[in-house]
């Protein structure tokens, strides 16, 4: 599928691109999941056409039940485009992974492909003087990385910038400056480990932070996505060597809290205190495809890595402050002092009903169950 009406006419699809949004809404209302394939790399297209396709792909990316995909054109045998441009086919080793089950060509197979382009046009491309092949491959790879990682980040990117294609280019340049490998094969990021992919996403957050995000609500969104990355890559303090599992505390009117231990959040967990409910905004985008800036409110989020994904939960403000100090450098005595010093209405109400000591014990017990705690 191409986004612009001009390209729709050229490739003879003649789809009414204005109906994409309503069709997606109707399918979601009927609980029908959608796979939406888009293609770039046609010989007649310009960067404006590529940008329009990238824009609609990122707009749909992250919505629950919608799975957009971006591919570079793979000419198929017997199709009009192959018959028209058969003499212009070029081979550079970059082809869709489904062209070959093993994702790579053995030397003898590669010789056959080069000697018989009329039999194997799907391994070739058609040159385009207006759209560089190398940059086009990078754009599709970076866009695919976005579509397959953090739900909601694509929506945020479109919200803060008018031209996502420009951001993809800046992202690619910034990654190269940091010494990260340039995508040189189809589904380049699919072959990388989770930690390697997150290094590229960290660069994107830096680009967005420096060039596009200035308001507090935008910074809150970036903090939210950065905490998800930290959880995926397990960059937290992690279990302390020679530590022991921090046992769940017994909660009663006379709870006994071990004052000397220094609790540490388990590896793969992160915490953030924010002034905006980013989770509500991302959830609304994923469920309904509706982006609105998060409303202002004091809220804490806990991020817990689970089997390759990250669970996000809201927590009381005091829980967020306690969890952020579970880093092995603060004892339970320090946490008691922190709980006693907080003056927000919610904490004051909890402290009056439970008492400082028991409130601290309740928070630590819940952290044991949800995120996991270690202690030195």
| C-alpha-based Rg, rounded | 25 Å
Q: What is the straight-line distance between the termini?
A: 57 Å
Total number of distinct structural domains: 2
Distinct helical segment count? 15
Order of helices and strands: HHEHEHHHHHHHEEEHEEHHHHE
What percent of residues are in strands?
A: 5-15%
The number of strands is 8
Report low-confidence residues grouped into runs of 5 or more: 236-243
Question: How confident is the prediction overall: mean pLDDT?
Answer: 85
Largest sheet: 3 strands, antiparallel
Going by helix content, strand content and strand pairing, the class is alpha+beta
Overall shape: elongated
Strand order of the largest sheet: 3-8-4
Helix content class: 40-55%
